[in-house]
Specification:
109 residues, mainly beta, 4 strands, 39% strand
């Protein structure tokens, strides 16, 4: 796949949620909602995520858009010939970019 056809590159994306004690709020562990996802998507491809409830599909989508902050990894979009590293954008830059993208959920009914 040539670099001008690439739309999205994801490398080592992780999202962990802390497990905290109720009283002292100390971290006692982590839930690995998304663990080391890497993929490349071209402009001519469509990506569908399929999995059981609680498998991390929504968390992955939200992490790709930085609606929630990923724990680690990189998300790079190729827009209008420009390489945009989503994981390093400021809040203002991110807000401007979000107007061009969205997640679409399938209604199971």
């Amino acid at each position: 796949m040539s670099s001008d056809q690439v739309l999205l590159e994801v490398a080592g994306l992780k999202k962990y949620f802390r497990i905290k004690t109720p009283l002292l709020r100390r971290t006692i562990g982590h839930i690995r909602a998304v663990d080391d996802v890497s993929l490349t998507l071209s402009r001519s491809e469509t990506l569908g995520l399929v999995g059981e409830s609680g498998s991390g599909k929504t968390t992955l989508g939200r992490s790709l858009l930085r609606a929630i902050e990923p724990t680690s990894g990189t998300v790079v979009y190729h827009l209008d010939g420009e390489r945009v590293d989503f994981t390093s954008l400021s809040y203002r830059q991110l807000r401007d970019m979000r107007g061009h993208m969205q997640m679409i959920f399938q209604d199971p009914f």
